[in-house]
Every structure is written in structure tokens, then in C-alpha cells.
Design goal:
The structure is a single chain. 75% of the residues lie in helices and 0% in strands. The chain is elongated. It contains eight helices and no strands. The protein has a domain of 89 residues. Helix 1 packs antiparallel against helix 2. 10% of the residues are buried.
Length: 146
């Protein structure tokens, strides 16, 4: 249930950004090319957001996992280092996408590097602030157009 508000927020931002891109492309191309590129960049960044980028760490789940390991008599230090969520098709695909992201890039492989370590509400607010600034710039370009 935690994922729903974040997914809804990111989806809303992606929709607003797509609409802004479509609108910005109707302005005079020579004067707004950099603005259109900035909107495209934001849309691209929003498309790169993964579940792990927005969801807070589930400390309750980690605590239960550790309690289960203790009950089974396993070494909790070794288990914590190798902790991995159960696999499913979606997680497998996300893992593959993350692995492929690293090819041909200059090192922005992790969300910590890409988003400055922001997660959850902070990350959504950061994207919203970027979109708000771009909307203001498009409105100013529209006003100049006459």
C-alpha cells in the first residue's frame, strides 16, 4: 500500500510533463529549443524512477527477517549483507534494466548518484519543483510570443 501514493504522484508528474512538452513544442522552435530539451530531460528522468527510489526502507520487514534468522539460528551479520527480496518477474526486469543502465554512461548507475540520495516525498517534491520551474518558463515564453 505504501507504493500507491508515490506511484500516483510520479504518474501525475509524468502526465503533466508530457502535456507541457506537447505544449512547449507548439511554440517557436528556435527560441524554445533549450526549454523543450529541458522538459524532455525531466520526462526522461521521471521515466527512470524505480520503486526503490521512492519507497522508504521497510524497517518493519527487515526486523521480521532478522527475527526469523535468529529463530532459525542463522548468523544475522552474514544474512544482512546478502539480503535480497524474493524474486519475481518485475524485480528481475528491474534488475536487468539497472544493469543495462550502466552501459555507455558516465557512472550515474544508482539512484543515490542520480537523485542525490533523495527518496520518497523529498524526491517527489524535487521533481515537482523542477516541473513547476519549467511550467513558469513555458508560460513566460508563451507571454513573449504574444
Amino acid at each position: 500500500m505504501l507504493a500507491v501514493p508515490f506511484a500516483r504522484s510520479i504518474g501525475s508528474l509524468r502526465g503533466r510533463t508530457t502535456a507541457l512538452l506537447n505544449f512547449a513544442q507548439t511554440l517557436q522552435p528556435s527560441s524554445t529549443a533549450a526549454l523543450v530539451d529541458a522538459v524532455r530531460g525531466l520526462l526522461s528522468d521521471l521515466g527512470k524512477v524505480r520503486r526503490d527510489d521512492v519507497l522508504p526502507i521497510d524497517t518493519e520487514r527487515e526486523q521480521h527477517e532478522e527475527e526469523d534468522r535468529i529463530a532459525r539460528g542463522e548468523d544475522t551479520d552474514d544474512a544482512r549483507e546478502g539480503f535480497e527480496l524474493d524474486t519475481n518477474e518485475k524485480r528481475d526486469m528491474e534488475g536487468l534494466e539497472q544493469a543495462l543502465e550502466g552501459f555507455g554512461t558516465s557512472g550515474e548507475k544508482t539512484s543515490e548518484v542520480r537523485w542525490g540520495g533523495q527518496k520518497g516525498d523529498e524526491l517527489v517534491a524535487w521533481f515537482k519543483a523542477r516541473l513547476d520551474r519549467l511550467e513558469e518558463e513555458v508560460a513566460a515564453a508563451m507571454a513573449m510570443r504574444g
